[in-house]
Amino acid sequence: MAPVKPFPARGTIHYSQLKIIAPVLFIATLFVYTFYAPLRELYRDWTIDPNYSHGFLVPIISAYFLWHRRNELKLNRSSFSWIGLLVMVLGMAGAIIGSAAAEWFVLRTSMLLFLQGIVLFVFGWPAYKHIWFPMNYLWLMIPLPYVIYYSMTFPLQRLSSYLAYLILSIMGVPTLLEGNILHFPNFSLEVIEACSGLRSIMVLLALSAPIAYMSSLRLSCKILLFLSAIPIAIVANTLRLVITAFTGLFGNPEYIEDMLMHQGAGILVFFLGLILVLSLNHILLRVPLCRKSS
């Protein structure tokens, strides 16, 4: 009789599991040790800046997709990729430049570039192809440089103001537009930076990306669904301004300055945008050109 192999004890880690766990622990340790300062400041920005509070969700969603792809990662792992080493060197060079210039955006982008290089170097290109989305999804957690951010907010303020003015005028509401200020008979509504819609765009982009990735659409339509978050966020933000205007016209104008009202309108924009993205996905799935060929 052939000898019977004993069953592994409950709770023990199999060698095939160790081949994945050990490199992951190595990557995590090296990454945190090397980029502790940028990670600390990134966490601080997520905490104090409402425009990037969604940053907490991005690593969690990315980790979920990585876990979902763990079997592909194990089966397709190959020898070290020297391209990954080159990417690591580029990431470290960017980190040195960012540290010397005290530029957090360069440091953070170099941090993610370095992470991409480690994963490529340890697991190889065949495995990386199966986890490209969760790895690159992390870029959405990096705050924009303030120069770019403020150069985008003012045009968005003007656009949202004009669209709200157009809708209200069509509805017969007496409205005067002056820059980014809407004047009504009994009050004025200024579209400030927080109401520009950029925050909604950033959040909806972070949400539409996994929706598009999981959808059974062709690649071109996945990209279309992802980018649709931008006009959808602008439309949702415009409707928020219209609702705020009606609140001031037919209610108490002081309510529009209430923080609870602003938070409630922000939640409304979020859910409205999410519903529109999901609805667009449903519509695109019915378009023959967007469906994957079986």
Protein topology:
Layout: H1 15-34, H2 36-48, H3 57-68, H4 70-75, H5 82-101, H6 104-123, H7 125-128, H8 132-137, H9 146-170, E1 176-178, E2 181-183, E3 188-190, H10 198-214, H11 219-227, H12 229-250, H13 259-285
Antiparallel strand pairs: 1-2, 2-3
Helix pairs in contact: 2-6, 5-6, 9-12, 10-11, 10-12, 10-13, 12-13
- The rounded Rg comes to 24 Å
Q: If helices are DSSP runs of H or I spanning 4 or more residues, what is the number of helices?
A: 13
Give the N-to-C terminal Cα separation.
Answer: 50 Å
For the biggest β-sheet, the strand order reads 1-2-3
Question: Which runs of at least 5 residues are low in confidence (pLDDT < 50)?
Answer: 7-13
Mean pLDDT: 83
State the helical fraction: 55-70%
Could you name the key traits of this structure?
2 domains; mainly alpha; 3 strands; globular; 294 residues
Short overview:
Helix content is 68%, strand content 3%. It has helices at 15-34, 36-48, 57-68, 70-75, 82-101, 104-123, 125-128, 132-137, 146-170, 198-214, 219-227, 229-250, 259-285, and strands spanning 176-178, 181-183, 188-190.
Structure write-up:
The chain is mainly α. The protein has two domains: 15-138, no CATH class; 147-285, no CATH class. The protein is built from 13 helices and three strands; from the N terminus they run αααααααααβββαααα. Helix 10 packs antiparallel against helix 11. Mean pLDDT is 83; it is low at 7-13.
